[in-house]
Amino acid sequence: MRVLVTGANGFIGTALLPRLKKAGHETIAPSRLDYDLLEQARVRALFRDVQADTVIHLAARVGGIMANKAYPGEFIYQNMGMNTIFLEEARRAGVKRLIYSFCGCSFGKNAPNPIKEEYLFREGGLPDENAMFYSLGKAANHLQLVAYRRQHGLDWVSLIPGNAYGPHDNFSEKNSHVIPGLMRRFHFAKERGDKQVEVWGSGKPVRDFVYVDDVADAFVLALDKHHEELPINVSSGVGVSIRETAEAVAEAVGFEGKIAWDSSKPDGHMAKVFDTKRMRRILGFNPRVGLKEGIRKTYDWFAANQGKARL
Ligand code: GDP
Questions:
Q1: Closest to 246 in 3D by CA, of 191, 202, 182
Q2: What is the number of the ligand 1 atom nearest to the C-alpha of 65?
Q3: Burial zone of 190 (CB within 10 Å; 0-12 exposed, 13-18 middle, 19+ buried)
Q4: Of all residues in the chain, what percent carry a pLDDT higher than 90?
Q5: pLDDT tens digit string along 48-80?
Q6: Taking the alpha carbons of 187, 193, 199, 203 in that order, is the dihedral positive or negative?
Q7: How does the average pLDDT of the chain come out, rounded?
């Protein structure tokens, strides 16, 4: 297939591109400098210029819990603005096959665990309020995709990656997700010889982490195997508390000081562990990289590439 990947230079895109090529696909990875996806005329030009038959749409404005809290307006506008235009222009360009990278934070904040895909819009009330503007925006564009499937008969699908982490993630102080955020903090604390590092919230929330290479493998498999309206969760299905996560990151980094919990920062969704039965049944896929190994690989990369890491 001739696959257009948006967000190809981002976190998941960087892992996905070599895998698509290895699977024999031709890849098109436009730069956001050439094609601003918030400009409808540029998106139309993109589809005209590249003539893709298949699209993997990863581009998004993303960030961790505090970035979502700090920039709700940017998160909702940039994601909904881009996605609404992008999906419509893909339809007009005659793209028959498209995978949308959707998000696990769109499930209701009280949805039972493990979270099955059919709970979407049905169980657990609204998404967690800290990331609600991002989550509901992403959900609205998933609905746009569903609407286009139903009205126009397009084979467009969504995947829901769990809490992805790995090399090429955003390692910034405030805007990153928990694993890269803590890795950076422990790393520099160790360098400075600090005795204590602050970690956000209570340590009690439970997350389901998935290594970025596993997410990328699932996207490649989904090109052949996923044709359903209902999204597929792509995650480990294993719940780990933030406390255990912080301890595992501290150990990998070699930070031996104290972990202090900063209760002024939000916990967010308390328990977000995904049901992975459909992933295993439909994609025939099981993640390969466990959390300890994944944290070690991520830290090896971070330590070797601080210049390249998005700090
Ligand atoms: P979420 O799954 O959307 O909440 O994604 P995050 O990765 O941003 O946060 C996961 C959990 O880790 C939340 O309960 C945070 O409060 C907690 N956490 C603890 N320390 C940090 C940190 O330094 N950065 C981030 N992003 N989260 C942290």
A1: 182
A2: 8
A3: middle
A4: 97
A5: 999 999 999 999 999 999 999 999 999 999 999
A6: positive
A7: 97
Structure tokens at 209: 């982490």
DSSP string, 101-125: E--GGGS-TTPPSSBPGGGTTTSSS
Question: Which domains are assigned to the chain?
Answer: 2-170+209-237+272-287 (3.40.50.720)
Within the chain, where are the H helices? 11-22, 40-50, 65-70, 72-92, 132-152, 178-192, 212-225, 242-253, 277-278, 291-304
Q: Tally the C-alpha atoms within 13 A of residue 83's C-alpha that lie toward its C-beta.
A: 29
What confidence category does residue 176 fall into, taking pLDDT thresholds of 50, 70 and 90?
Answer: very high
Q: What is the model's pLDDT at position 309?
A: 81
pLDDT digits (tens, 9 = 90+) for 209-248: 999 999 999 999 999 999 999 999 999 999 999 999 999 9
Which has more pLDDT, 309 or 123?
A: 123
SS3 state of residue 226 = coil
CA-closest candidate to residue 127, choices 118, 139, 144: 139
Q: How far is the CA of 64 from the centre of ligand 1 (A)?
A: 6
**Atom 13 in ligand 1: residue holding the nearest Cα:** 267
Q: Is the pLDDT of residue 120 over 80?
A: yes
Q: Residue 56 C-alpha to ligand 1 middle, in angstroms?
A: 27
Angle separating helix axes 242-253 and 291-304, nearest 10 degrees: 50
Residue 269 Cα: closest atom of ligand 1: 4
Q: Confirm if 261 and 293 have CB atoms less than 8 A apart.
A: no
The active-site residue out of 100, 134, 211, 299 is 134
Concerning whether 134 is annotated as a catalytic residue, the answer is: yes
